[in-house]
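Student: I would love a firmer grasp of how sequence relates to backbone shape in proteins. I am handing you a single protein, as its sequence and its fold in token form. I am told such tokens are a discrete way to write the fold. I hope you can help me see how the letters and the tokens relate. Take your time, and here it is.
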Amino acid sequence: MITALELDAERAAVRDAVAAACREGAGDSFRPERWTALAGLGVLAAGAEDESGARELVASCEALGAAAVPGPLVETVIALRLLPEQERAAVAAGRALAAVGEPPLLPHAASASVFVWIADGRAWRARPQGGISPVDTLGGEPWGRVALERGAELPGAPAALAAGRLACAALLAAAGRRALELAAEHARTRKQFGRAIGEFQAVAHPLAAAWIRISAAEMLARAAAHDADEGAAEAHALAAAAWLSARRASLGAVLRAHQTFGAVGITLEGPVFHLTRRIRTWASLALDEAAALRLVAARAGLAP
């Protein structure tokens, strides 16, 4: 299991290649041309066609999370595992955007051409009924309110949701880690009363605690990816646990990063706001929390 907690050379190379692509197209707003460029690298379709590939998915998402890349990343992971083959190509290539969740509020609904309704561990193809009202979000991404009509149920929802949760866990953990790295550097260099603020326990101890939680969530996501690739029976439950852990740990990292930076941390031009706004967006995704909790409880032998 120890080897599952570290990326091997092959997956580390995947992460580094995606990270390099993110640096070349850096930006804090969603841009279609950047999205299709990522798709051209195969980033959006990582692990979608094969029974394995979860570790490649996590490696890619670690790079995307650290770069706070905007766009329907998690939704695309889920949609590519649910849609019929003839519809997957356009989504994988970035030509079509997928809105996945439970209406009426859906991420990227205003610009999506594919809609998937998720509820109670199941998934249905859906189509809009009436217009879509754009909604401004803290994350700066184009969400929307829309009434949907359910169509045919899509098979494979448990596996698709597990992959989406796994991707989201990796995104959240990586973004949280990067926010804490920046906060720790600030604590080392920012001085008050003639001392670096990192020397004060009220700053250092909360940062250290947040780092431990983020590291645990990151390792849990990697372990879940390893189990998924090995076909372990508990892989879906571990992916759910990784998502729940990363969501809580990353939101804690947001709090500690802003606390460390003070007022400058919550400005749009500040050093961490591009990360913390993306964390809040990913943490808000409707990935069927009730079903995830049931999976974790069952795996732990607890009552629902």
